[in-house]
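Subgroup meeting minutes
Present: P.N., E.W., G.H.
Scribe: E.W.

1. P.N. recapped why we're keeping a running log of single-chain structure predictions: easier to compare across weeks, and new members can see raw inputs and outputs side by side.
2. G.H. added today's entry (119 aa).
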Amino acid sequence: VQLVESGGGLVQPGGSLRLSCTASGFTFGSYDMSWVRQVPGKGPEWVAGIDRNDGTTYYPDSVKDRFTISRDNAKNTLYLQMNSLKPEDTGVYYCVAVRVKYSWLDGRRGQGTQVTISS
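Output recorded in log:
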């Protein structure tokens, strides 16, 4: 199982980023997927999830209406479009192949991609 995140960077508040996660070594379309973020000294925070079957998406209130998760099963790729970014969105972002439905934090992760929101 391999997950490789990309697309992070330094962005000013109010800006946008699009993260990608390319999967290999497993049947991507058979897994619910999520994005989580983590900052040093804190536990991981779930920011988006997507159902493997019908593509239903889920978000916590902290990112709702700003973040959009999507997937392309033909390309084995997961995306996270992030708009109206805030300094508190800073962190390392990981994609997760979810083990148990709705347990968005629990699963295999990639190495992460750093997102920094700062002026």
